[in-house]
């Protein structure tokens, strides 16, 4: 079955450490997105990519980085510069007007 | 820029009650409108969508009509069930294209709890 795989489901990070969240898709969709979800604030766009080797900052890109070396993969790195990284992170793909979401990664800073 | 405003939650109803969750939007052009549902600990699932004015999206007993004159896309269900308990997000995409990319813009979400 086609879909999006986000891993891990739960991730714990010590302060000052970088951590990478994985997003893999087998839908053959060109566009991929990373959203951050905080309670009561909906989803906010971090980064997006329309094609391989290209990506753009979203509304809250500071403290995050991404790469898009393959069509199937769009990993998100949460760097030590992100001051409040504890959140639920969702990856999505788009084809035409249809968006598909992964099941998310919950990141907690300890 | 584009934005979406949802009624604040949480919303608590009894089983078989009528549900309305209000959603209004601000956008240039003619965006597509969506309702997504999120169950605890999971990602988002598309509930319904509408791509042009006066379109009605429907799924699983839920309905929403794209009203351009009032810039609204209110979600309704005639008789809710306990299994409808979840967080509901209104969202829009498209309209005026920004840097050639379509981005999904979300409301803040409304938590719905249905009591038996």
Task: Write structural notes for this entry.
Chain A is mainly β and 110 residues long. Chain A is built from no helices and eleven strands. In chain A, the strands form two sheets. In chain A, strands 2, 4, 5, 6, 9, 10 and 11 form a seven-stranded mixed β-sheet that branches. In chain A, strands 1-3-8-7 form a four-stranded antiparallel β-sheet, with no helix packed on it. Helices cover 0% and strands 51% of the residues of chain B. Chain B is built from no helices and twelve strands. In chain B, strand 5 and strand 6 form a beta hairpin. Chain B is globular and about 45 Å long. The mean pLDDT of chain B is 91. Classes of the chains: A mainly beta (110), B mainly beta (116).
In short:
The complex is a heterodimer of chains A (110) and B (116). By secondary structure, chain A is mainly beta. Chain A has no helices and eleven strands.
The biggest chain-chain interface is: A-B, 26 and 25 residues
The total of beta strands of chain B comes to 12
Mean pLDDT of chain B: 91
Major beta sheet summary of chain B: 6 strands, mixed
**Low-confidence sequence ranges of chain B:** none
- The computed structural class of chain B is mainly beta
Instruction: State the helicity of chain A in percent bands.
Output: under 10%
Task: Tell me the number of helical segments of chain B per DSSP (H or I, 4 or more residues long).
Answer: 0
**β-sheet strand percentage of chain A:** over 45%
Defining traits:
A: 110 residues, seven-stranded mixed beta sheet, four-stranded antiparallel beta sheet, globular, B: mainly beta
């Amino acid at each position: 079955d086609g879909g999006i795989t986000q891993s891990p489901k739960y991730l714990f990070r010590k302060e000052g450490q970088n951590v990478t969240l994985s997003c893999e898709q087998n839908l053959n969709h060109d566009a991929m997105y990373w959203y951050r979800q905080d309670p009561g604030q909906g989803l906010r766009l971090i980064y997006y990519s329309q094609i391989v080797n290209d990506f753009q900052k979203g509304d809250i890109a500071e403290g995050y980085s991404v790469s898009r070396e393959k069509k199937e993969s769009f990993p998100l790195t949460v760097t030590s510069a992100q001051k409040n990284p504890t959140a639920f992170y969702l990856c999505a793909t788009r084809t035409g007007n249809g968006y598909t979401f992964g099941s998310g990664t919950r990141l907690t800073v300890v | 820029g584009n934005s979406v405003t949802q009624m604040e939650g949480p919303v608590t109803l009894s089983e078989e009650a009528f549900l309305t969750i209000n959603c209004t939007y601000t956008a240039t052009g003619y965006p597509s409108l969506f309702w997504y549902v999120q169950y605890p600990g999971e990602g988002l699932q598309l509930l319904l969508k509408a791509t042009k004015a006066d379109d009605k999206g429907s799924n699983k007993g839920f309905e929403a009509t794209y009203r351009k004159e009032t810039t609204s896309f209110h979600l309704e269900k005639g008789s809710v069930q306990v299994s409808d308990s979840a967080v509901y997000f209104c969202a829009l995409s498209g309209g005026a294209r920004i840097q050639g990319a379509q981005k999904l813009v979300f409301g803040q979400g409304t938590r719905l709890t249905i009591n038996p």
